[in-house]
Amino acid sequence: MAAGGGAGNKTYSFKVVLLGEGCVGKTSLVLRYCENKFNDKHITTLQASFLTKKLNITGKRVNLAIWDTAGQERFHALGPIYYRDSNGAILVYDITDEDSFQKVKNWVKELRKMLGNEICLCIVGNKVDLEKERHVSVEEAEGYAESVGAKHYHTSAKLNKGIEELFLDLCKRMMETAQAEERAKGNGASQSTTSRRGVQIVDDDPQAATAAGGCCSSA
Amino acid sequence: MQNLHPERLVTTITTTTTMAAAGADMKPLQHAMKIAKVAIQLDAGNRHKEAYCEYLRSINFITHSLLEDAVSRQGEIVEVEKMLRLAEQCLERAKSSFIGRRDEPATPISYTTPINLAALSLTTALAVSPGKIVSPQPQEPVIYSGPKHNPRPGQRKVLSEGGGEVITFLPPEIFQSFQIVESQDTRKELTPIEEASRLNQKLKENYEARLARLPPAQARTQKTSLTLSLQRQMMENLIIAKARQDALQRKMEERRLRLQEEANRRFAASGTITAEEQEQRVLYTNVLEYEQDHDWPKLWKANIKKNPDDPTLVSGLVSCLLSCPDHPVMMLLKRLQYRVYNRLYPIVSKSLPTSPALPMKPSHSAQSLLMSDSHQNVSKSEVGHSMSSDASLNISFSHDHIANEEDSDGPHTLDRENSFEDLEQFLTQLDWAPSHGDPDVTFEQSQLDQEEPLVQDLEMRDLKEHLKAIVKDIHIAIDQLLSLCLLSFECLNTASSKDLCVASIEEAFFTPLWSSLLALFRKVHRERELSFESSMRLYRDASPGDVGVASKLYPQDPVMLHGSYPYDSAVQELRLLCKDCCPQRKLECIVRTLRLICACAEDYSCLHEAESKTAAIGADDLLPILSYVALHCELPQLVSECAALEEFIHEGYLIGEEGYCLTSMQSALQYVESLHTGGFQLHNTKFT
Questions:
Q1: Which ranges are annotated Polar residues under compositional bias (chain B) (predicted)?
Q2: Cα–Cα dist B535/B530, whole Å
Q3: Second label for A208, Cα 20 to 30 Å away, from A126, A193, B213, B523?
């Protein structure tokens, strides 16, 4: 397999974890994302906890698996088994809740410590429909995100704002990371190391390759 | 094959009789047990009719001696009660062998249950613990549990802490012998020599019959000539057979060389040959050889080539392959399986003295002593027998006693049955001497003997190391099997067929191994299981709210539950997990459990708000409910099961739904484990 470039006969599989406190609206965020893009058959019966989505980005097929995690403090210790092997993390806070932003900072620290820079981080301020009650300033949030190498987004699950962009952007970044990794691997000698990382490059079956639609269409 | 070594059986019986005659000191109970033992062996060999007679003989002996004792010298027999019990059990077994007799001939054996044949003797592979009998439970699918051991639902007993429970597993050589039994069954062709000896047998019979028919006077004169002609005929037959066999062998050898070259050509690309490559070549040669002898692989290949898009053909081929025990893939599977079991056995068959308060019971040491005894040689193991009946007797009945004390509310009859099976198992173990002709086995055996003292000192760290090594072995074994499979059938080398192949291979590979594998995991995760158990006891009557389930996600009104508890269906589903013996199926079970939880949650939330749309639950809600379900499941071994699944889940499933469900299950279990220490501050957290 040629490194990096080329035709759309590859499928990327990415795992994305959703982190954030219990009341910040992770579940509605993800439900909203699916509701818009997909008919029901793409949503597993686990509904809002685990879902997969197939995307087509610049001619490349991407399988996205979104893992929701429990936000309660008492489950915090269980985080590592959820986020291991993740390619991306979406860290959600509630812009009206300063405390939830602090929690995001804790997550960032932990993720960087455990997974290094390989994981693409998105910090998401949700509930921008409640702008009047904002307790986390835009400057502070964006400044912080930049300082830790994460992207910052503002969303509203209620108004369906910013969600599409968030996921699309994240996917593109994860693809870049994966391609960079491939190139690095291609330069090295062997690629047979069976790492348990989530990026898998699978040779496509020919029939599906033709079904490629526009950017980010539902396959 | 071994369960009915006629010669051995005869020796056993003769020893029995001579001892009964000579030894005035042999107690009637012992004698009765000897007979019972013979019966069990016969039963194991599917000789139900003879077994039935032996059981009756044992009963007859018991009643006779008890009657005699009762009528004349009263009270000389001390173990009256025990003897009566034995008689009762023999009667039970006689009944079942009577049924078994009626059902003959035995139904064909499918590969996935390779042990049915011998199941009866192994009704026995029973949980025996020092000082306690763990009854065969639904969550403890003991290796080779026979038809009599259909798990009794609702008969669950949780491990008590510090018990150092040991499930008695079959020694590796028996494990292997069952694999062999099975493959021999399918081999029906006789070699020329065998054919000749059959023919000679007939000639001899004819000769004897003819001689008997002759009047005595004539017989004397004709006998010599008849004998000579018989001898000549027999000799001729043998010589012809020998020549034929040699020719055949030469031909086979030539063919083998030819095929070997073919195999070498196929792998010619690689320059230097590693040991693995060499092995692969040999295996491939075997495959080619097999295909010369059998037509079915060609037929399937042609068929698949004709209809490449037919998935049923692929699964048909795979199941066909699995049902051919003499195909090189299956031979390799058995060999690898045996290798793994051989590594597992010394560890899982020994109890770790986890609790110093609990001294080692004599049963254990006596057993190991006698076992090593029986390994050495036959004559010695015969000696072992004579002393064994005494020992085993005491052990089995003391087990019985202790079990009754510990579990006084348990049904009495069950314990008794166990004690008998305990004994039976013990007796069977004694009779399994290693097959002497097989150098492989004896080698493994000696290795095993060396390991024994070591094993007892194994500490947790070593256990973990061992576990790691075995897990790695299994991964390698599966890879090896898959590659040989794809080598044999190139048509299977597509993504979807490969998945199917792996699934089938794994199922065949894991099924007989899982219980021993799980036993090792349980040893390693013992602490975690104990924590789980403590939480389980503490939260026995907890409501979902107590573990943090949002109140809208379960009905407060008990009437709504129709006498059961919330999420009952998910609990029932999860309990089934331990019944499967294959990782893939277990994973599917976990996925089903989570889906049931989601379905239940939706139903319950509809009860609360009539107007609510679909109530999709996120992880915030899922995890507390899953914890509640795990608590109610009351199976501490879930901890070990999931730890094992974690090791054997496929990479492809890791980030999929299966992976998510397993991860959630693991988290819920960890949370439950932490409950009893209060480490998670149950009540002061806020949750939505």
A1: 364-385
A2: 9
A3: A193
* Cross-chain residue pair B618–A26, CB shorter than 8 Å: yes
Contact B329, B488 (CB under 8 A): yes
**Nearest C-alpha of chain B: how many angstroms from A110?**
18
3-state secondary structure of A13: strand
**Which among B622, B663, B685 is the nearest to A81, CB-wise?**
B663
How close, in Å, is residue A55 to chain B by CA atoms? 16
Interatomic CA distance for residues B526 and A46, integer angstroms: 31
Q: Is B495 helix (H, G, I), strand (E, B) or coil?
A: helix
Instruction: Give one DSSP letter per residue of B232-275, joined into a string.
Output: HHHHHHHHHHHHHHHHHHHHHHHHHHHHHHHHHHHTTTSSSPPH
Cα four-point dihedral sign B84, B90, B93, B97:
negative
Portion of chain B with pLDDT greater than 70, in percent: 64
Structure tokens at B143: 């290796």
CB pair distance less than 8 Å for A30 and B671: no
Task: Report helix, strand or coil for B402.
Answer: helix
Q: How far is B317 from chain A (nearest CA, A)?
A: 23
A125 within 8 A of A145, measured Cβ to Cβ: no
pLDDT (tens digit, 9 = 90+) per residue, B270-288?
566 677 777 888 888 888 8
Q: Is the ipTM of this complex over 0.85?
A: no
Give the closest-approach CA distance of B442 to chain A in angstroms.
37
Sign of CA dihedral B319, B321, B324, B325: negative
For the residues B373-387, what does the mean pLDDT come to? 37
**Arithmetic mean of pLDDT over chain B:** 71
Chain A residue with minimum CA distance to B651 = A196
**Residue in B594, B599, B620 nearest the CB of A71:** B620
Per DSSP, the three-state class of A74 is: helix
Check CB contact under 8 Å for B667 and A70. yes
The mean pLDDT of A104-130, rounded to a whole number, is 92
Measured between CB atoms, which of A68, A77, A194 is closest to B619? A68
CA distance B687 to chain A (A): 6
CB B414 within 8 A of CB B135: yes
Which of B528, B595, B664 is best to mutate for the A interface (most A CBs within 10 A)?
B664
Contact yes or no for B297/B326 (Cβ under 8 A): no
Instruction: State yes or no: cis peptide before B346, omega within 30 of 0.
Output: no
Q: Using one digit for the tens of pLDDT, what is the confidence trace for A30-69?
A: 888 876 544 444 444 576 788 888 889 888 999 999 999 9
B548: left (phi over 0), alpha (psi -120 to 50) or beta: left
Do residues A152 and A170 lie in contact, with contact meaning Cβ atoms separated by under 8 Å?
no
Query: Please, which residues bridge with residue A126 across strands?
Result: A94
Beta carbons of B663 and A49 less than 8 Å apart: no
User: Is the model more confident about A101 or about B488?
Assistant: A101
Question: What's the Cα-to-Cα distance from B270 to each of A191, B277, B278, B284, B479, rounded to whole Å?
Answer: 18, 9, 11, 16, 20
Q: Nearest CA to B496 among B310, B642, B627?
A: B310
Mutation target among B569, B655, B657, B670 for the A interface, most CBs of A within 10 A: B655
Q: Please tell me what DSSP assigns to residue B584.
A: H
Q: How close A197 comes to chain B (CA, Å)?
A: 9
- Mean of the per-residue pLDDT values of chain A: 79
- One-letter amino acid at B266 equals R
Rounded Cα distance, B512 and B338, in Å: 10
How far apart (Å, rounded) are the C-alpha atoms in residues B387 and B662? 50
CA B121 to CA B258: how far, in whole Å?
A: 45
B601 by Cβ neighbours in 10 Å (0-12 / 13-18 / 19+) ranks as buried
